[in-house]
Fold this sequence. Notes:
Layout: H1 3-10, E1 15-17, H2 26-45, H3 49-53, E2 56-64, E3 67-70, H4 71-88, E4 91-103, E5 107-119, E6 125-139, E7 142-153, H5 156-161
Parallel strand pairs: 1-4, 2-7
Antiparallel strand pairs: 2-3, 4-5, 5-6, 6-7
Helix pairs in contact: 1-4
Amino acid sequence: MNRLSLALILGLSTTIGATTLQPKSQSTSAAIDADVWAPVAASVVNSDIVAMGRVYHPDAVLVSSGGTRSIRSALDGWGKDMVTARAKGDRATVEFRFTKRQDDADSAFETGLFKYTVIDKSGKATPSYRQLETLLVRHQGKWRIIMERQLEAVSEAAWNALPR
């Protein structure tokens, strides 16, 4: 996979823009951020596919324009991409901004955008922006992604239009 593919698949923030445009339980958002988005962001920065895998439910599914596949299959490919990027001297970051966060005690649905930035060994940063939807469940006391859907790419202007 190329860098753009990795960016589209990893989809996840050194800075978590946990914003919302709808009323929401701040404690649930904080719990989801702590269980899911902060670990994903750290796993991208650290190229740690094992840590990334922990945020997904064992039966999670990735949905993209190309179809669906198990998260285990996706993680295998993402891990190889991380190794390749690291060997080239590339590193990455990811950020999230949410347009909707709705939940109850055991399930949540979130929509928004993510910004995935690849920084090459010379320091040149190349960001990409993509729409994201996630369905989450509480599993063994922690929030876990059960479905991740990556939608079309969007512009930097669309990203900037969302509150931080």
